[in-house]
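Thread: S-adenosylmethionine complex, take 2
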Amino acid sequence: MTVEHLPVLLREVLDMLSPVKGGTYIDATVGLGGHSEEILKMIGQDGRVIGIDRDEEALRRTGARLHDTRLIPVQGSFSRVEDLSVLPGGSKVDGILFDLGVSMMQLKDPGRGFSFSSDEKLDMRMDISQELSAWDVVNEYSEKDLVRILKDYGEEYKAVRIARAIVDNRSETAIDTCSQLAAIVSRAAGRRGRIHPATKTFQALRIEVNREIDELKKGLEASLKILKKGGRLCVISYHSLEDRVVKNFMRDKAREEQLRLIVKKPVVPGIREIRENPSSRSAKLRGAERL
Ligand SMILES: C[S@@+](CC[C@H](N)C(=O)[O-])C[C@H]1O[C@@H](n2cnc3c(N)ncnc32)[C@H](O)[C@@H]1O
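Output below.
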């Protein structure tokens, strides 16, 4: 592949999703199309993949790269997966994949403002037409709200200290760039170990800006409505908050006999994949079949 992104747990996703010839699949986070590309190889000429993403640029690049009429690109948030997937005559799909979070393209492209090592303006919007950005959260949220998001979305135990430092610093001039914020957080939290001290703060901001937890809950609920009996739902998450939402959702729906769990414990990458693609290290794949 010529993309700067390696699809995570690719073989495991394909095993779990088990794409069939002529099937219709939804890749709810098509990104750079790594997973979709392989699904397309398995579904024959009559199959199709509806590729959803919030990020217009990701869809543009993937469309140009894969150049395949069986891939139907759709821009939007996966919380609206039911409305976005125009299915003829109320038909349902054979499988849905969610590969959560951000792509390498979003992290690395200049101007997206996701990465704490960059001098870019704080941004972090996956959909650049959205109004709320990380700059607004950092410079305009109350101290109380900053503490709340740092705790809830960053699981940051130094939330109070970090929120205080943000509020103190912005009282003089606005905190404009990612590296400015990273330096403020590092001074407030102190560096310990290999992980950058601003990692949890940046995670929390990204989740808040993109309403990621709410999106996930709505996306999972909506996906049940369009999955046919025997159809498969596969979700890759990258941090404990997301994984908890997925795990609880699948467990509850299994109790209600709407889903059957395919695996009890999440599937995680092996040493080899982690070595080749370190950003896969926190991935957890869960899957269930529609009853
Ligand atoms: C980890 S990447 C997916 C990578 C993809 N599986 C591949 O192999 O190229 C996640 C993608 O999901 C998109 N995304 C995240 N949350 C979304 C949401 N709520 N609705 C639609 N797309 C979303 C991001 O814009 C990003 O492109």
